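Moderator note: this is an archived Q&A kept for reference. The question asked for a predicted structure of one protein chain; the sequence and the answer are reproduced below.
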Amino acid sequence: MIMIGANRATFASLIVNDRIMNFKKNLGISLLLSLFAICSISAQKFGYLNSAQLLAELTEVKAADSEIETFSKQMVSKGETMVKSFEQKYKQYAQEAQSGEFSPVQVQQKESELAAEQKKIQEYEVEVSNKIAQKREELLQPILDKVKNIVDQVGKEKGYTMIFDTSTGGLLFADESEDLMTEVKSRLGM
């Protein structure tokens, strides 16, 4: 019986040693895979740029902003003239209506005229907003395109995988080899 106990102890130590060897192998393989993963991650190059700060410092943007402001003031000035004219007509109507100078038909007619004028002012406000937005895009889009092209050039020339915008948290540049659109489309049968 002592012999059987010794064999069991030897057998148990063999099992333990075998498990330790397997653990060491698995640990070694895991460490090796981790090292490869770290190396491949470190091979990627990332950059960042604060586009809001860059645009604020560009003289072209400052000139465009100045032109937009001048254009906006001209448009708003006409709107203010329309509002002043409306206010004068409304005050005059209110005084005449209180004094009882108008018949009910005349009151309705004057109110319709004032409502039509007020609608014109509201339409002009929308028109102004649209024209200012259009002018802004017309002046700033070429500048934004220029900046985008330069960021793309820097990204490609310097070997960046991705360049992020710190002001928006967006992506300014991505290496085309990282785009998975074609692969995903093909797997979807597109």
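Archived answer notes: The longest strand covers residues 46-49.
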